[in-house]
Backbone:
């Protein structure tokens, strides 16, 4: 006990100095964290002010936050006497080992950079990629967040998105609705075609240019199939799709044109 007390007395100045430096280092960390968050927020606001895609803003803001916080950690370590030059060298060697162990994460980061550079989609676009579909909410360093129409959130690794085909349903201003409508073989094809056209003509959301298509597609097993292909503005796609299907059924019924459906005949034989 006496030895410990003597050691404390002999090294009190050094301990006081180290304690002060440690407190300063903690203050640096605290302030640095606040500054990093502030830089993150300012980056997003600056991008929004310039009307740059918010997904890109979020990605860049994450990188800015990481860079500022890393610099803060180095400053704090330097304050307590750690040689940052050698520390950086150690970090570099450790980073190489960690990088080899976390190749998937590095692949996600690289894919995130490619998404930002190539910009196959932006925030708000409805896409299908990696077997999943949804509206893009934000692009982060390692992942991209999608939201499905039924309000589920999908967090997808960036590498999963960039490793396959990406279908962007929102990029173009217009989309074509593709419907296949079958009528019975006993139906008057000219009348059926005219009924289908009349339904399209009444729908105000259908564009005049390019013009819609109504034509016989095939003579199927139990029906004559028409292809109905009108063009609409992309935001109007699903509302128009649903309404057309309903209105076509009503119009064909009113014209006494049958729509074939699968049937099963059961024959009973008495012995």
Residues:
């Amino acid at each position: 006990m006496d030895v410990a007390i003597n050691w404390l007395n002999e090294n009190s100045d050094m301990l006081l100095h180290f304690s002060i430096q440690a407190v300063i280092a903690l203050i640096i960390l605290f302030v640095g964290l606040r500054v990093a968050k502030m830089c993150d927020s300012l980056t997003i606001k600056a991008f929004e002010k310039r009307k740059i895609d918010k997904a890109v803003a979020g990605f860049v803001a994450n990188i800015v936050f990481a860079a500022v916080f890393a610099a803060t950690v180095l400053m704090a370590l330097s304050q307590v006497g750690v040689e940052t030059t050698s520390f950086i060298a150690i970090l570099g060697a450790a980073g190489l080992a960690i990088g080899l162990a976390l190749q998937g994460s590095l692949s996600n980061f690289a894919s995130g950079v490619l998404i930002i550079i190539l910009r196959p989609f932006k925030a708000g676009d409805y896409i299908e990629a990696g077997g999943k579909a949804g509206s893009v909410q934000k692009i982060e360093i390692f992942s991209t967040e999608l939201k499905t129409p039924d309000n589920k959130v999908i967090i997808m690794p960036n590498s999963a998105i960039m490793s396959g085909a990406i279908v962007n349903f929102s990029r173009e201003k217009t989309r074509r609705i593709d419907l296949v409508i079958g009528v019975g073989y006993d139906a008057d094809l000219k009348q059926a075609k005219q009924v289908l056209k009349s339904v399209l003509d009444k729908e105000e959301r259908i564009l005049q240019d390019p013009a819609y298509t109504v034509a016989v597609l095939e003579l199927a097993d139990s029906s004559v199939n028409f292809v109905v292909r009108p063009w609409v503005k992309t935001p109007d796609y699903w509302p128009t799709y649903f309404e057309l299907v309903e209105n076509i059924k009503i119009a064909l019924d009113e014209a006494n044109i049958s729509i074939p459906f699968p049937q099963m005949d059961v024959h009973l034989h008495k012995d």
User: Anything to note?
Assistant: The longest strand covers residues 132-139.
